Automatic annotation (TrEMBL):
Transmembrane segments: none annotated. Residues 14-445 form the Amine oxidase domain. This is NAD(P)/FAD-dependent oxidoreductase. It comes from the Bacteria. It comes from Nocardioides daeguensis.
Amino acid sequence: MNTHDVIVIGAGVTGLTAAWRLAEAGQEVVVLEARDRVGGRLRTDVTDQAGAPASFEIGGQWVSPDQDALISLLAELGLPTYPRHRDGDSLYVGRDRAARRFAEDLPVSPSTRAAIAELTKKLDELAAAMDPARPWELADARHLDSISLRTWLEEQCDDAEARDNIALYLGPAMLTKPAHAFSALQAVQMAASAGSFSNLLDADVILDRRVVGGLQSVPIELARRLGDRVRLGQDVTHVAWTEEGVVVHVGDDAYAARRLVVAVPPTVVRRIRFTPELPAEQRIAREHQSFGLVVKVQAMYPTPFWRADGLDGTAFGPYELVHEAYDNTPEGESRGVLVGFVSDVNADAVGALDAEERRERILDALATYFGEQARHPIAYVESDWQHQELTGGAYGTSFDLGGLTRWGHVLRQPVGPIEFGSSDVAGLGFQHVDGAVRVGTEIAAGLGARATA
């Protein structure tokens, strides 16, 4: 049994970034991935439903201008980007189910608009005061962690539509949980990790660009550079460790190393049996984290018909089954693609339907925004990560009430020779690919420092 310098479990962006940086530094590295592909929560699929091949990004896909770690890596890997289409008016649907166009100001009453602005200001102030890597250090953190975002919003504002719009951006759109299911502190961390809550409100910021060929190109290119150091179909079930090193078991095979990086979501760490057991607080911390639920839907049409009507394809409504939708047409594609999202309790509801009824209800929801043409796509693709054991949900994990202040600090703590990390435990770039790049880079730098100490 050969001994490596470092074993990495997980060929998502965190694991592959860490492995690549360690390999660059001369470390002998092997990456073990349970799936038959690299990328983790990034995946690009090709379908010929439309009569000719069409590419759909099933997982994460957007690049924001503040995501400088990801942007730097894209430049290093030579992966070009292109802007999301954004010419034209956007659409908003309120309680009356009517689609209203707007270019700048949200088409709600002046009092609701003012209430949204005031809540945004308060969240921006809290986010500016927080280090997203250490949210438990924010003043009044324990109180904010003890109440749900829904409760906090009700304490701050008596305008229901304003509250529901703010909750939309932090709950269904980001943490993919209802606003009563996560703490106000967790919501502030989500905002702080993106630079401000205002950034989350601005689709031109948070959904700025896409990668040519899809964001999975990042892990694919990293894996190409790592070569045979990346081994697929290697489902790690047991890790034996001492202060001197680890032995990692995959079926009847075993790998030894001086250091181990567990680069999988916190909830997936529990699939691995450790000998000796991890400290109790490591296990308990992860037991209080869970994924949100979201169904990502993409519908392709013969043309991007909404553009001819002067629409940019952006639409949202806090009371709709599809709470947000965007023009997702790839660069150079003559056919038009809309992407929409069904989240949290709505994801529960459609998940209980058969495939045809689910498709019909989702297309009906798109038609609420874009009209009858939206009901008749030439291709239709759903991605539902909650039914995949090695993920279990999307987009990332978050704590239940009170968990962030009790156990958040545990998640990045090493145990003997073992390091843990994923985008779920990032500060800046929390739950985004940018966060995965940052965490992978930080882990590699830390292991490099320990190796030369």
